Amino acid sequence: MLSSFVRSAFRNTPAVCQLRAMSTSGSFSSLLVSRPTEAITHVQLNRPEKRNAMNRAFWSEMVECFNQIAEDSDCRVVVVSGAGKIFTAGIDLMDMASDVMQPAGDDMARNAWNMRKIISKYQETFSVIEKCPKPVVVAVHGACVGGGVDLITACDIRLCTQDAWFQVKEVDIGLAADVGTLQRLPKVIGSRSLVNELALTARKMYADEAKSCGLVSRVFADKDAMMAAAMEMAGEIASRSPVATQGTKVNLIYSRDHSVAEGLDYMASWNMSMLLTQDVMKSAQAAMEKKSLKTVVFSKL
Ligand SMILES: CCC/C=C/C=C/C(=O)SCCNC(=O)CCNC(=O)[C@H](O)C(C)(C)COP(=O)(O)OP(=O)(O)OC[C@H]1O[C@@H](n2cnc3c(N)ncnc32)[C@H](O)[C@@H]1OP(=O)(O)O
Question: Which domain of life is it from (predicted)?
Answer without folding.
Answer: Eukaryota
